[in-house]
Amino acid sequence: MSDSLPDGITGDDLADSLRAIDRGSPLVQHLTNEVTMNDVANLTLHWDALPVMADSPGDAGEMAAGAAAILLNTGQVPEGKVEAMHDAGATAAERDIPVVLDPVGVGATPTREAVAEALLEDLDFSIIKGNYGEISALAGVEAEVKGVESVGEYDEIEDAARSLADSTGATVVASGVEDVVATDDGAVRLAAGHERLSEVVGTGCMLGATLAAFRGAVDDAPTAAVHGALAFGIAGERAAEMPHEGPASFRTNFHDAVAGFDPDTAAELDLAGRLERVD
After folding, report:
1. Which one of 74, 114, 131, 231 has the lowest number of neighbouring Cβ atoms within 10 Å?
2. DSSP-derived secondary structure for 78-105
3. So what family is this one in (predicted)?
């Protein structure tokens, strides 16, 4: 059974998690896709964690031994990388290192479904993060995923996320217009983010990296998931408030907003109404 979701959140709570990352400088190992690897590495660093992208068989398992958290992203699934994911996950299990799964594109092809199913069968995950379609597909609910994008309506996403949390023991983050964070005993909706985030390739991967960075420093998985997703969304809002001409300059703003999102900034935030219990 997973830990309980927080009933509320204050700016001081979020500041405490950011301080934990700053103090611990957690090493986050990413086995991710080449399309977004640079953004993922940079964003991890901007959260004050340390990125490493060891993703080949042998090296992946060895590097995992020193990691505080591991992110497995299935945006690309060549055979060697999938093998490396299992290697890193096996090391994580031996050393009680939390693993975050970002099942990119699951539901779009049988190959990706098989890769995700094998990972879920062989490994234990602390957090599973995906868009509404990916989480629904993993939960066995009808979903429509085109490429790596979720399309369609998901009126019962909370139920799907809770079902997946119950079957895996993980905290589940379903990202969308509003993010849903679920455990086996409840779910919350988070009101944070900006539409510009959907106009930049890789923000979903960067959310996965954010959750891994928070989980590498915060002992409680539901708290790490809620705080990480909320901080990510608020950084998107702050980026949109900075001068920009379009998606490219917004992307730069977003990295800057994360880099400037320090504990003092978080402590001053009024987070009333940002978190809604929906179970």
Report:
1. 114
2. -HHHHHHHHHHHHHHHHHT--EEEE-TT
3. Belongs to the Thz kinase family.
Beta strands in 10-167 (DSSP E): 27-31, 50-52, 69-73, 99-102, 127-131, 144-146, 149-151
For residues 257 and 37, what is the distance between their CA atoms, to the nearest angstrom?
A: 19
Let me know the angle formed at the C-alpha of 16 by 15 and 19, rounded to the nearest 5 degrees: 85
Query: To the nearest whole number, what is the mean pLDDT of the chain?
Result: 92
Question: Residues within the annotated binding site for ATP?
Answer: 129, 175
Model's pTM, two decimal places? Answer: 0.93
Q: How far apart are CA 107 and CA 254, in angstroms?
A: 29
Contact 247, 196 (CB under 8 A): yes
How many Cα atoms sit within 13 Å of 237 on the Cβ side?
A: 13
Q: 165-177 pLDDT, tens per residue? A: 999 999 999 998 8
